[in-house]
Amino acid sequence: HLERSSLDQVLPGLLEKTLQRGWRALVRVNDANDIDDLDEQLWTYRPASFLPHGKAGGEHDAKQPILITATGENLNSSQALFIVDDAELGATEDFARCFIIFDGQNEQSVSHARKRWAGLMGSNVDLAYWRQDEEGRWARAR
Question: β-strands 66-69, 80-84: how paired?
Fold first, then answer.
């Protein structure tokens, strides 16, 4: 639940931690325009480095450490799934962790996240809800 930071500020750090763990990541967005925007952001988010990634539909999808997609397929055998805003959750059985990231300043995104959470509460999955505190640190909400 992003309250103090933007997706552009938070997602690269989460992806870095995912790669440090030795995992691959699949980032699911709403549409192709979002793919291009996120692709550009991951190349330029830090002047001295970049996150190795690709856009789904390339000939090397299966080899990408981070793959950005608008579909439900786990084309790079990721362990971590990142759902951005209102993108479809899809099947999650192949993933060790799923992260649903939404903008707390956007009421439509918050409403969608609440509905999604309510639907997941009835399923047989281990759920945790994290939000940013006043200093921007992550705190698990109870």
Answer: unpaired
For the entire predicted model, the pTM comes to 0.91
How does strand 66-69 pair with strand 129-132? unpaired
| In the chain, alpha helices (H) | 7-20, 32-44, 107-121
Task: State pLDDT tens for residues 7-49.
Answer: 888 999 999 999 999 999 999 998 888 899 999 889 888 888 7
Residue type, 82: F
Q: Are 86 and 103 in contact (CB under 8 A)?
A: no
Distances 98 to 38, 49, 84 between C-alpha atoms, Å: 18, 25, 11
Distance CA 118, CA 75 (A): 28
- Note the pLDDT tens digit of each residue in 67-88: 999 988 999 999 999 999 789 8
